[in-house]
Amino acid sequence: MRLELTRRPRVSPLGEALAPVVALLVTLVIGAILFAVLGQPPRRALHAYFVEPLSEIWSLHELAIKAAPLIIIAVGLSVCFRASVWNIGAEGQFIAGAIAASAIPVFAPDASGPWVLPAMIVLGMAGGAAWAAIPAVLKTRFGANEILVSLMLVYVAQLLLDYLVRGPWRNPEGYNFPETRSFSAAATLPEVIATGDFGGRANWGIVIALVVAVATFVLVLRTLKGFEISLTGLSPRAARFAGFDARATTVFVFLFSGALAGLAGMVEVSGAIGQLRPSISPGYGFTAIIVAFLARLNPLAVIVAGAILALTYLGGEGAQITLGMSDRFTRVFQGVLLFSVLASDTLVRYRVRVVHGSAGKAAA
Amino acid sequence: MTESIILTIITAATPLLLAAIGELVAERSGVLNLGVEGMMVTGAVAAFAVSYSTGSPYLGLLAAAATGIAMAGIFAGLTIGFATNQVATGLALTIFGLGVAGMVGEAFVGRPGVGMEPIAIPVLSELPVVGRVLFAQDLLFYLSVVLTVAVALFLFRSRAGLRLRSVGDRPEAAHALGLHVGRIRTLAVLFGGLCAGIAGAQLTLVYTPQWIENITAGRGWIALALVVFASWRPLRLAVGAYLFGAVTIAQFHAQALGVSVPSQLLAALPYLATILVLVLISRNRRFTMINTPAALGQPFVPDR
User: Fold this and answer.
1) I need a surface site. Which of A220, B182, B272, B281 has the fewest CB within 10 A?
2) Is the pTM of this model over 0.90?
3) Could you say which architecture CATH assigns to the domain A41-324?
4) Which residue spans traverse the membrane (chain A) (predicted)?
5) Measured between beta carbons, which residues in chain B are less than 8 angstroms from residue A330?
């Protein structure tokens, strides 16, 4: 038995729009089966994962906090992947951005004034872009595989962060805990709605995420630069004939996605955490890859996809508390989701037939 | 002293060599499986769980092999059956694998593992110097050597190996000649999973007989880089694996010698070395062009 794929003459827009929805449903079914295998009542577990986090104001705030970095990173990656450039190291660029942005509150803890946050944003983006520039340059100058280089730099960034918070950047008044000083109010992203009935912890990171998504959507679908990026990804030859420089595009999308990953790192340390610690990300840089694919590389759709994956983090934490389930299940879930998204994409582009034996071959 | 250093280098190199030799075969058939890390880590946890429960490291090894094959089966089903994007599917496999391994492994954190005992080969193991180093090793070391030689012979000295390479270079031509591209690629990917699973078993049965979350620590990715470094040739792969084993071990010996460098910098050495090696090897474009499987990473859907 094997599968026979026939390219569809025309890809239906409806199919394209429905594919991620189908993928989500398939993931939920597989998830329910996995819960049952693990001895959890599937309905209750799914409820704990996907409904409970949406039922209260404070948990919606948590959702926004987790969605913000995912959306910001995934917007950058969606541009990068459109060009068929594989930046897999957003996690490292996220950390590099967080480190760079923290330089101000670490070295100038008393700094105050309205310039502090914008300066941290600029530093964060520069840090992320610089970290991403390494694989970009090694790729374009020497042809080194960008997937592996960007990934190796994730480990290097994690070790660099570890070194800083245990060594030179450790809080001098922190009883030897491996963490920096807590950031002052001037270096902290404020809450969007701090008080009142709808008040909570969510900071301006989510607003930044929405602005970034909309602006990138315009860049990608309404400007020549966006066309250049997409064309380079779809048909490098055609792009060359059009006079577009593939190397320049590679560098551009790497710097772009790196800067956004760095921005996400800044948002996370300044908004959600308030200091640097040995570990500042539950794998946002990798999860954002799933977000980008679930959104079919559309920067606007990334907003919805980011919220969905933020929900899996939140659901995982909730299920750990209410059901005593391992929070590792979140990653299993995320992996299955990406599998389903990719498979559903095939169903949109191809007609899939199951062929028994080798009859199909003879007919060819 | 030198002997013990060489022994530790071998132990550090074996999992890299095992994982990379499997990936090399898969890539020669034109399939880029970035899920090595995920297959390896599930193999590692399966080996630990089964050997811990049964007391037999060899049953653990079998479980790891089966797990690796099953993981590769998911990948093959998607990338070959469904012609999905290989890069993204491989990443999904790694995320999935790390999640599964973390979940299964939670119950085993801090438990004592069952180590695999060395097997001394009679006569040979009594040779001076090389005897202890090469012929009194564990089964997985011998397996890595045998597999490397076998893969080299298979790829470049057998008809089946030629077919596999042709599928990786020109799938259209291979298809036109009546070769089953999908079947050959599936088998190559499954072999890659088998090897990655065994490589994972080496970590929990030989390297450090215990379960630590994320025990693979990027070794699956380094194995992928090794395949590029070796320009898709098995014997060069062995050289690369031992070089990397030496780099990994260098950090421990540097610490023991009291080198005053932050431990994090030493720990970053294997990753930095990987980047350096990738740059050096890729600089010569013609050399890489000649050796890279021409259809690497591209799904093949025959036009009927």
Assistant:
1) B272
2) yes
3) Orthogonal Bundle (1.10)
4) 21-38, 58-81, 88-109, 115-138, 147-165, 204-224, 244-264, 284-311
5) 99
